[in-house]
Amino acid sequence: MLIDNHGREITYLRLAVTDRCNLRCFYCMPEEGIDWLSREALLSYEEMLRLCTLLVGMGIQKIRITGGEPFVRKEMMGFLRQLRGINGLKDISLTTNGVLTASHVPELKELGIKAVNLSLDTLDAARFFSITRRDEFAAVMHTLDKLLKHDIDVKINAVVMDGRNTQDILPLVALTKELPVSVRFIEEMPFNGDSHEYNGLAWDYVRILEHIKGAHPNLEKLKDAAGSTSYNYQIPGHRGDIGLIAAYSRTFCGSCNRIRLTPQGELKTCLYQSGGLDLRQLLRNGASDDELKQAIITNMNHRALDGHEAEQQGNSHTVHESMATIGG
């Protein structure tokens, strides 16, 4: 098993397959986008499959595909078919913005993809355009409908932003009445890909919870799964449920069971970590499987206790790294 220096078993890999995205959400990147990685700078599918196979052999049980937007990268479904073939991998899930996803839903179901996280910060088309700088609201809602019709578990990820979409909190909660979805409200983070100063958090998970309770005082706490990043609730009689993710407050870090592999092949043991283990360089320098495993184990033996410690260990940056390059 892959165990860090704090005794935590690592079973979950978030694999970012590309830094590119077809939306320009202001909280993730500047309007003009970021300096995209060249094709050579990205891990190839073959390199990703080799690393995933190694990591599954070391105890990884679940892999979540992220980006950027995964379906921007060509031949994504072919890669998922190969990933499904890794012996010992129990669970593959996916995070997507939904713009290009609908046509792939039947095959996702056929491959056994049981859960999809859908990024959707608002149910208002005009606000969607304001946040994402793209007119793709209808495409995302079509994807949501198609996922539900194919009985794929859907978690809707909504970043809560002061002055932008707080009026959408209760309408998103209302989705859980008739739809079997989990709506998760995420604290805004400073990973916007530019030098825009991040002035702290106006809506933390506590304020979001109190806002929901104001409209639904009968909100019930659910039991959180081991390693869960969300505090989970349900309104009695509703088909779906609600989650709160303290991504900026980082109150869930103590039980973290996940690591990240960026599009350029950096293994990150924490979202707030500066840099990471350069597995791409090791791969391309001819490292053996045993050498790769030893490098990963050594890296895990120097893991920060939590996101606050990881941030303190990092260097000072005037430009915040975009979530697209870290892996959303």
UniProtKB/TrEMBL annotation:
Short name of any one Pfam family annotated for the protein: Mob_synth_C
Cofactor(s) for this UniProt protein: [4Fe-4S] cluster
Radical SAM core domain ranges (all copies): 5-218
Entry GO MF terms: 4 iron, 4 sulfur cluster binding; cyclic pyranopterin monophosphate synthase activity; GTP 3',8'-cyclase activity; GTP binding; metal ion binding
InterPro entries according to UniProt: Aldolase_TIM, Elp3/MiaA/NifB-like_rSAM, MoaA, MoaA-like, MoaA_NifB_PqqE_Fe-S-bd_CS, MoaA_twitch, MoCo_biosynth_MoaA/MoaC, rSAM
Record PANTHER family: MOLYBDENUM COFACTOR BIOSYNTHESIS PROTEIN 1 (PTHR22960:SF0), MOLYBDOPTERIN COFACTOR SYNTHESIS PROTEIN A (PTHR22960)
Assigned EC number: 4.1.99.22
Top-level taxonomic group: Bacteria
Keyword terms of this UniProt record: 4Fe-4S, GTP-binding, Iron, Iron-sulfur, Lyase, Metal-binding, Molybdenum cofactor biosynthesis, Nucleotide-binding, S-adenosyl-L-methionine
Species of origin: Mucilaginibacter yixingensis
Name of the molecule in the record: GTP 3',8-cyclase
Record PROSITE patterns: MOAA_NIFB_PQQE, RADICAL_SAM
Residue span of region Disordered: 309-328
Top-rank EC class of the record's enzyme: lyase
Gene Ontology process terms (BP): Mo-molybdopterin cofactor biosynthetic process
UniProt catalytic activity: GTP + AH2 + S-adenosyl-L-methionine = (8S)-3',8-cyclo-7,8-dihydroguanosine 5'-triphosphate + 5'-deoxyadenosine + L-methionine + A + H(+)
